[in-house]
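Recap from last week: sequence in, structure out.
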Amino acid sequence: MKVSFWLRFLLLIAWAANGSAASLTELLDEASHRNPDIAAALSAWQAAAQVSTQVSTLPDPQVTVQHVAVGSPRPFAGFSNSDFAYLGFGVSQDLPWPGKLRLRSEAADRDAAANKQKFEATKREIFQQIAAAYFQLGYIQKTVGVLEHDQTLLDQIEKIAEARYRLGQGNQQDVLKAQLQKTKILNELAHHHGLMESQQAQLKKLLNRAPDEASITADDLTETPLNYTSDELLAKVRTENPDISVEQEMVRKQSLQVEIARKDRYPDFSVQYMWQHTAEQFRDYYMLTFSARLPIYRKRKLDPELTQAVGELNRSRREYESRVQQVYFDVRDQYISTATASQMLKIYREGLIPQALATFRAGLASYQSGTQDFETLLSTYLDVLKFDEEYWKTLADRETALARIEQLSGVRIH
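Predicted structure tokens:
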């Protein structure tokens, strides 16, 4: 069993040696340049920014070339002796009702602004996922260290149990229980090593790294202060949260769509200018044509279009309100989780962990002198192990909650 433990221990040392230490800031900077989801969102924003000038530009002019023959289907028949045979050249331009192009441009601008906010939301989401995996990795690393440290405490228990058994003061069952507990710790080490590999894979995916690249070693977990009140965080939500900003842009865009639907009830125009040439002895013709498209299908087309636009505007307003309330709830929830975790960490540091360790040391001396049974000693040892693991788990959860607050409010904490 000891050989298996040391083999496992050496594997963990080899993993740490091959890993590369990296701060969370370094990983976030790497992700901003390499993550494919962030790159895709950036491309979508850049593409949407090109729409405004397209929809605000007049339709392409149309060039017309005409030839009219007289008396024969042959080209240029009667061209020299008839005023009705001619060669013509003209150009026409469609002219939308004033204001339509401007509204379409503004709607496209709102679409581009929404895509910009979606890019920011995607980046923050990826950053939050990286932070969560990073803090989870830090927790696992600390847990492995706790298991290895508490393994030495268990070694002391086993040696005392063996000594008492040899002197006839104890029983073999105590020795076997100590060895069983050591096996359980080895099982925990194997389990956490698997969790560590899983978090490594998650980080490499988010950083767009190759699977065979060096593993990442997280910095030691520390309790990051939160220098904002709940009200201060909520005040930043409406202006700094990109998901809310997306909904705001959608409301603005749908308001413009209502105006566009109203403008569609007005006619569009077309202007055409034509030059016609016959033979040299005949004078040229010049023709100016002005036409209008009449929007007469109100009940079947224009009224439903306006009703649809108003309905979409109402929907976007309700979605905006829903998003605000959801983000408010998330911020409050994460703030409460952070405050609760801070209180728990203080209790662990100042109460549970030192008290459990003192109880274990006193119990170890009592067991060695024969005034305490093995089950009580083992129970105090398990308390030390449990409180150590719970402390680091609580700290990792708190830091993850802070990363979520950063994502939602836009404040810089880590």
